[in-house]
Amino acid sequence: MSFGTCVTLFTLFVTAVRGNIDKDKVLCLPRQAHLAYGDTVRHMVVMWSTRHNCSTDVRYGSGPWNLDKTASGKSIYFAENNMGLQYIHRVLLENLEAGVTYYYTPVSNSISSGPFYFKMPPSGEDWSPEFMLYGDLGLHSESIPKLTAEALRGEYTAVLHVGDFAYNLHDNLNMENASDCSKATQVGDAFMQMIQDMTSHVAYMTSPGNHEIDNDTFAHYRHRFSMPQSEWPIPLHQMWYSIDIGNVHFLSYSSETFFTSNGTYVNSQYEWIKQDLHVANQNRDKCPWVIAFGHRPMYCSNNDGDDCTKIDSKVRKGFEELFYEYGVDVVIQAHEHSYERLWPMFKGVVLAKNYSNPTAPVQLITGAAGSKHGIDDFNNSNIADWSAFHIGNKSFNSYGKIVVTNRTHLYWEQISVADGQVLDSIWISQTNHGPFDKAKLTVDIMEKIDESIKKEQIITQANSKPKTTDTSVAKGDEGSFFNNVSTRIALGAGFGGLFFVFFATVCIVHRCKKKRSKNYRRWETLDYGRKFYSNVKNGEKDTDDFESEVSDGTSKLLERD
């Protein structure tokens, strides 16, 4: 073989290898990297997406140039209502050391992204974790860059996203309007890539919202995220979980079980939460604080007619007594695109107008991170006593922050994304963690609670009754105008006469038309721009001429988020 032939073959080989590498770079490049805790904070889940079916590995270690450990995981093909990156990868990093900063890089077919890093929480319970919390964050929200910058300050143990992602994960993105930073055809892909700088460095803990329901499948939510105490993809019957972080027991629940078509998992979630909180109360010595978070609020002062504005609220009926009975300290909610803080209360009755040893859960609504649907306003003319503080327009593009200072004190604030202004803040002190006890309430308070319960029962029963067409006269109405017998006879005779006149008129018109020549004419003149006109002969008067406006073929569907 000549030297020239060898050179040619070598060149072809290099070109082929380079072509395969370039192809792998496109098809196997890990994108949308994000983190979540495993069953404990000593485990970390790494997830990413690729366009092709590629290998699933994570290299990690104590420095960006010292990735001396490798963990392998699995990938799944996810094409359900998904035109974007259809292979999602998951790797579990186990038995990580407390307080250590780890560097890692996702690897698919030898193609990697990163390196990224995260810091493990300290060991034990005697430290002060901080958390960023928000709900209702859209793809095009101007909050994302500033939320990312805030998260990268390194202060947060986790970010809690309380439902409603991207608007919507399962929608397709109009590429003509896509920003330069999001080339994917799927809204979910673009959103996950946009928040990667945040989610690849801080554990991103979630709960589902109404925009994730997706025909009762929650498909994108269940595949794109992995949460503790659950298989992956997350099964429909396991879309709730809990995890201990420092001195806090977090409980993530799904408010959406009440709004699926058949409510299949309402009871199973209830029983799971009941058992979880029972165990949590046995562990209050180590984790005194219990914080629950789920998307839809139990109460709110907004004027949009949502479930939280109703006396027979489904979410309220499902969780309020349970959280009270087991002593949940704080409930974080979203869905309403505004901010509201409630006094400690039960069944709509305020138990105290302070947060010193509250005798009921403290409820907070932080759904103003940046929804494409704008702000949800308040019914300021009818604000209930239990609403301690609420803010509408100024709260748009804002987030919550919790600092668990110690076993007895917790600090909360709502912060504007635009300028960092603190919109609201409170200290909650609790020296008596544990189940709340109705027996300790005053007689006056209990009477108000009983009255509220009766009112709720009456409305619930009324709403549950089937609609009827009963026309019987209620007692005491016999003398009313329309129930008077003579009046009804007169009205009947009058309507009968009108009907006879109408019928006679129709018959006369019909006979007249029969006498006219029935010349069926073709449409000869069509103005496609705006209108149809009928054609008439010269000098002829056509009483059937008409003019129909057809230029506006649009329709609008108002969608409630």
TrEMBL record:
Superkingdom: Eukaryota
Record's protein name: Purple acid phosphatase
Reactions performed catalytically: a phosphate monoester + H2O = an alcohol + phosphate
Species the sequence originates in: Sinanodonta woodiana
InterPro entries, per database record: Calcineurin-like_PHP (IPR004843), Metallo-depent_PP-like (IPR029052), MPP_PAP (IPR041792), PAPs_C (IPR025733), PAPs_N (IPR015914), Purple_acid_Pase-like_N (IPR008963)
GO MF terms held by the record: acid phosphatase activity
Signal peptide (residue range): 1-19
Similarity annotation: Belongs to the metallophosphoesterase superfamily. Purple acid phosphatase family.
Keyword terms, alphabetized: Glycoprotein, Hydrolase, Membrane, Signal, Transmembrane, Transmembrane helix
Keyword Hydrolase included in the entry's annotation: yes
Pfam families to which the protein is assigned, alphabetical: Metallophos, Metallophos_C, Pur_ac_phosph_N
Residue ranges occupied by any Purple acid phosphatase N-terminal domain in the UniProt entry: 30-119
Transmembrane segments: 489-512
Purple acid phosphatase C-terminal domain sequence ranges: 360-425
The EC number(s) this enzyme carries: 3.1.3.2
Region spans: Disordered: 535-561
Ranges of residues in domain Calcineurin-like phosphoesterase: 132-339
